Amino acid sequence: MMTDLWNTDAVPFVGTESSRQGLGFRYYQADRVVAGKPMKDWLRFAVAYWHTFDQRLVDPFGEGTATRPFDKYTDPMSLALAKVDYSFEFYQKLGVDFFCFHDRDLAPEGDTLRQTNANLDRVVDQIEGLQKSTGISPLWNTSSLFTNARFLAGAGTSPYADVFAYSGAQLKHSLEIAKRLGSQNYVFWGGREGYENLWNTDLRREQDHMAKLLQMALDYSREIDLDVQFLIEPKPKEPTTHQYDFDAATTIAFLKTYGLDDSFKLNLEGNHANLAGHTYQHEVRVARAAGMLGSLDANQGDKLLGWDIDEFPSDLYESTAVMWEILDEGEIGPRGGLNFDSKPRRTSFTAEDLFQGHIVGMDTYAAGLLVAAKLHEDNVIGSMVSERYSSYDSGIGSEIENGSVGLTELESYSLDVPQSEIIAKTQSDRLEAVKATIGNYIVDTLGRA
């Protein structure tokens, strides 16, 4: 399908000879084998339709600045159909295999859901044709149950039954599209599933309703034989004061409370992790520990700003930490990938900036993969962790872990031991050296890349 709608060539690999950033990859080589798999199979990059083709770079204080080659289309449906052509050429020139979208990213709404579905189906027809000719497919899709004014107080958690009913009806068609396009995952992001004020909120009832909507989605997916991994994306705040899927741990607890943990995994995002007061690595580790890591959104925030800015990732330390977790896990998730839920800054408004942002993000995670692979190869982290917990490998430690002792036995073991002996068995964590080692691996590994 490759044409020249974007007036640019396919993005090449250029290597690291020049330090100046251009329209080329410095680290990402799709077929380069790292730790036994091609880079493209470790990373499984996806383009976010909403940020890349719909976002006009507005902010709360100013109108959009974006200039796009499809701006010449003014009729809403003509524009929606044109964007599909532009999007698939973008994927091909960037060299990615996947994209992600909300239903309302694709087509304008009509006066009724029936009209809206008809508009959406016209665009999906075009997507389906281009999927067949290019092999590019959805990593995941989802339903926008938060943008329209009807969702002012949530969708599944709305206090208005008609809004809940509409949400379910919209969700039904979105699941049908997932089946039609062969989505590998289906994501629930509760954009307004939370509360503004507890005084007028029935918290338990709202969470019951939220779980009920998820269960309805599961039931319907089985009815239509939809083969996807269901995912929930945690986010702590903004737009609501408190959202029920606050972070990985909270979301896991919610799923277990309602018996949904066997059917759902987590889609995690770096910026959301920071807003919850965590590192991205922390959220990935929590999901891994629970066996619930599903997929990742690749972006970053700004430590000086307290909202979700969805900046393209460029932090090599963070990408190294995340990719170390992924290598240790063996995959991002059963069907997961790295979706660029990212947009250029408002002052980076050209079409070229769209390519640059994705190139930077792809290179950042490719570089993180290279460093993490070297850390794994040298068993740097594994050996440190094994040494730190080695006291549990024998003696009283192994008895604690295998459950052969209780508090009475622990008292007998400890009662007459001098404090100096207990303290003598502790060791320095050497945290400064640990952090420096990670930094050294980043510098040294990428210097040889």
Low-confidence stretches: none
Main pleated sheet: 8 strands, parallel, barrel
Query: What Rg, in angstroms, do the CA atoms define?
Result: 24 Å
Question: How many beta-strand segments?
Answer: 12
Oligomeric state of the chains present here:
single chain
Alpha-beta classification: alpha/beta
Biggest sheet strand line-up:
3-4-5-6-8-10-11-12
The average pLDDT value, as a whole number, equals 97
How many helices does DSSP assign? 17
> What's the N-to-C terminus distance?
33 Å
Q: What is the element string, with H for helices and E for strands?
A: EEHEHHEHHEHEEHEEHEHHEHEHHHHHH
Q: What is the percent of helical residues?
A: 40-55%
Strand content: 5-15%
Overall geometry: globular
Task: Please provide a brief summary of the model.
The chain is an alpha/beta fold.
Model description:
The structure is a single chain. With 449 residues, the chain is α/β, with parallel strands linked by helices. Helix content is 47%, strand content 10%. The protein has 17 helices and 12 strands. It has helices at residues 39-43, 49-54, 76-94, 103-106, 113-134, 161-181, 203-223, 248-257, 270-275, 280-289, 316-329, 351-377, 380-388, 395-402, 407-414, 419-424, 431-447; strands spanning 33-34, 37-38, 45-48, 98-102, 137-142, 185-188, 194-195, 229-232, 242-243, 264-269, 293-297, 338-340. The strands form 3 sheets. It has an 8-stranded parallel barrel with strand order 3-4-5-6-8-10-11-12, surrounded by 4 helices. α3 packs parallel to α5 and α10 packs parallel to α11 (316-329). The radius of gyration is 24 Å and the shape is globular.
